[in-house]
Amino acid sequence: STSMLTSEIIEMVNNAIGVISNILLMYLIVEFSRKEIGSYKYLLLAFASFDVFLCALHSFVKPKIISVGYIFSAATHSLIEILRVGASFAGFFTVPFSLMNIHFAYRYISIRIPEQILMFSDKRVIALAVLYPTAQTITW
Which ranges does the record mark as transmembrane (predicted)? Predict the structure, then answer.
């Protein structure tokens, strides 16, 4: 139908704009960030790079959202129709929420206890920040 085709075109354009704008953001972060921004720029790069990935994944999976009353679901319509594609999409969908939690922790510490902000440069904290969204994705 025409409305379905229009919807698919809007999704494709939206995904393309998402990829382009996030790649531009990553370029701006890398090339023009002040030194004072410190490790925060890596958190911003994580957001932007994962958004590029999610836009590409969304284009590949082509999810169809189903919302009825209190029920929210997504069905995939990708070239490869296997359960793992849908499960992966659901798992990766949770990563921005994990990144947002890390972002709030960073902002809280930078405001309330700024002398501890260097902790985000510690390799163990970085490993934990990577492990947290990874574990959530795997759990899904």
Answer: 12-30, 42-61, 81-102
Contact 78, 60 (CB under 8 A): yes
Residue 81 contacts residue 120 (beta carbons within 8 Å): no
pTM comes to 0.79
Q: Residue 140 — very low, low, confident or very high, per pLDDT cuts 50/70/90?
A: confident
Highest mean pLDDT among 21-30, 38-47, 106-115: 21-30
Q: How far is CA 15 from the centre of its chain?
A: 13
Place of tokens 């029920």: 71
Longest dimension (CA), the chain: 59
pLDDT tens digits, 1-27 = 677 788 889 999 999 999 999 999 999
Element (H or E) spanning 68, and its range?
Answer: strand 64-68
Instruction: Pick the closest to residue 56 from 30, 107, 81, 19 (CA basis).
Output: 19
